[in-house]
Specification:
It is found in: Membrane. Residues 227-481 form the GP-PDE domain. One of its GO terms (molecular function) is glycerophosphodiester phosphodiesterase activity. With 541 residues, the protein is α/β, with parallel strands linked by helices. The chain has helices at residues 9-20, 26-32, 38-63, 68-79, 85-113, 121-144, 147-173, 175-184, 188-207, 244-252, 284-287, 301-304, 311-316, 327-334, 341-351, 367-381, 396-402, 434-442, 455-464, 474-477, 489-540; strands at 228-232, 257-264, 270-272, 354-359, 388-390, 407-408, 424-428, 446-450, 468-471. Among the domains are: 15-119, no CATH class; 228-271 and 338-479, Alpha-Beta Barrel (TIM Barrel). Helices cover 57% and strands 8% of the residues. α16 links the parallel β4 and β5. The longest helix is centred in the last third of the chain and has 52 residues, at 489-540. The chain starts with 8 loop residues before the first helix and ends with a helix.
């Protein structure tokens, strides 16, 4: 089979060697009579599917980065090992997608050059392993982190229009090797099958925008106000979580609400702490090694004040932003102690920031006393009660009676037979659709969604009209003056039509051009075949 114009023998050999793991020159290949068999075509199809599979996983990996800090905390609770597993995820994913991409590019180039697709057995084994690894990753995601499937659906509202353009572009480029293969093969049935599959795929892609919906497809004057920011345990990317330093850093980020978690010590002092154990965010293992595994509520306030609540932040670096802290911030972090609720309320009062908290653990036998003690601290602090947002469901009616000015925030959606209207709800961002957010906004119900760290997600919720978001990345979202993208429906319609038309013209051009090239090669190939036949007959005589 002669090489088409522009594909030199040396280039073809360089492409064939890494794909087949054999140093076969183009001349040797012709002498051996190597051709692409049905088995080779099957492996190429498998390679293409593996590439798509890893590409989908790459998309998921990027999406779940918004929530990956939760995974890091989960692993620490189970194994007492802190590591930024997002780096491991991204590196492994990059290796898999790079490997399958390189092989696919080699295969497409070999096809365009008219050379056989003899995939080496080592590559076959590695491709099977790639499928198994990615399948295991998806399975684990579905079992242990099922809510991320909802995150993926939300992400399509941010990426749908651009994924459509990218898929149309990729499938359009695929027309070149497809046309080359169709004009080379003599199997009519295979030709018809490939053309039908490709045509169906392109028609589906051309019409895909009919099913793409996004709240960010709207006119500029319809854009709702920017959501307020709620600091998740303060500003945990800039300071140790649930400390006074974290509260003040959140204030610097224009955060309107400081979100935290409250526990009550053994001697009745409410303090800020998220985990039931102190091992992740303090040096309790060094100060009280024999008591390190105890619940946080088992320590009295004097013991808690002996713990360092900031050095872990510099040692474990829970976020990449820790590396960029100034020397003064690093020094201040090492001086942080566990703050009491009273200290946090005083800081909130001075900085005019609201405070929202959960009271943990809700299954504690003395939980009612925890509620009473916490309410007592709030009332004694002198903070305006409208600055306090109460999240716990336990003994909520008692709280309403003792402190009627406290704002009640519910961790659920409203019910059909609601006795009194909800004014504030606090939910995971996966639990509310754009339509529900709009409806709640029309009904003057404040909606806060958590935890929102990535600009793409913040943009979708902004366009949807959410009231506020809880975030770890207040310093990032603070700088956003506008959603990442906003398209009027008329503009998106024009982009859709132009992309589809350009794609269609390129596909027609590819098939027409390669058809002309195939006609030019046929006379030369026929003469070569006749010559080889004569030589073969002479050798047999």
């Amino acid at each position: 089979m002669a090489d088409p114009p522009g594909c030199c023998s040396t280039c073809a050999t360089c492409l064939l060697c890494p794909y087949s793991c054999q140093w076969i020159t183009a001349k040797k290949e012709k002498r051996k009579g190597l051709r692409t068999t049905k088995c080779d075509c099957s492996w190429f199809l498998f390679l293409f599917c593996v590439f798509l599979f890893t590409l989908v996983w790459l998309y998921f990996a990027i999406i779940i980065l918004n929530d990956f800090h939760n995974f890091n905390e989960f692993i620490f609770k189970q194994k007492k090992l802190w590591l930024d597993w997002s780096l491991v995820l991204l590196i492994a994913t990059a290796v898999l997608i790079s490997y399958s991409s390189v092989l696919l590019v080699l295969a497409l180039c070999l096809q365009l050059c008219g050379h056989p697709l003899k995939l080496h057995w080592v590559h076959k084994v590695l491709l099977i392993l790639t499928v198994l690894v990615v399948a295991a990753a998806f399975t684990g995601l579905g079992i242990k982190w099922a809510e991320e499937w909802k995150s993926a659906r939300i992400s399509l509202q941010a990426t749908g229009p651009f994924l459509h353009i990218g898929l149309v572009g990729g499938m359009t480029l695929l027309a070149w090797p497809l046309a080359s293969f169709i004009y080379r093969t003599r199997n009519t049935g295979l030709k018809v099958f490939l053309l039908l599959v490709y045509s169906a795929a392109m028609i589906a892609l051309y019409l895909a925008p009919l099913g793409i919906t996004s709240p960010c497809i709207m006119e500029e004057n319809q854009l709702p106000p920017k959501p307020a920011l709620v600091g998740h345990r303060g500003a945990p990317m800039l300071a140790p979580e649930n400390t006074l330093m974290s509260l003040h850093k959140a204030v610097d980020c224009d955060v309107q609400v400081f979100e935290t978690d409250v526990m009550v010590s053994a001697d009745g002092v409410p303090f800020l702490m998220h985990d039931e154990e102190l091992t992740r965010t303090t040096n309790v293992q060094a100060v009280f090694p024999e008591r390190a595994a105890l619940n946080s509520t088992a320590f009295n306030w004097t013991d808690l004040q002996q713990l360092d609540a900031g050095s872990w932040f510099l040692e474990r670096r829970p976020f990449p932003t820790v590396q960029s802290l100034s020397a003064s911030d690093r020094y201040e972090a090492t001086k942080q102690r566990i703050p009491s609720l009273g200290q946090a309320l005083e800081a909130a009062k001075q900085t005019n920031i609201s405070i929202m908290f959960d009271l943990r653990p809700e299954n504690h036998s003395d939980y009612q006393n925890f509620v009473n003690v916490t309410l007592g601290v709030i009332l004694q602090s002198g903070i305006p009660l409208q600055q306090v947002l109460w999240l716990p469901d336990g003994f909520r009616e008692d709280v309403k009676q003792q402190a009627p000015g406290v704002q009640q925030v519910y961790g659920r959606k409203r019910l059909e037979n609601e006795k009194e209207p909800l004014l504030h709800v606090n939910l995971p961002y996966q639990d509310m659709s754009s339509e529900e957010i709009r409806q709640y906004r029309q009904d003057n119900i404040s909606v806060n969604l958590y935890v929102v760290n990535q600009p793409w997600l913040f943009s979708v919720l902004w366009c949807s009209g959410v009231s506020s978001v809880t975030t770890n990345a207040c310093q990032v979202l603070k700088e956003m003056k506008h959603p990442i993208w906003l398209l009027p429906s008329s503009t998106y319609l024009m982009i859709w039509i132009v992309v589809d038309c350009v794609s269609f013209l390129i596909i027609i051009w590819a098939f027409f051009l390669l058809k002309k090239c195939s006609h030019r090669r046929r006379p030369a190939e026929s003469e070569t075949d006749v010559l080889l036949t004569k030589i073969n007959s002479l050798m047999q005589e």
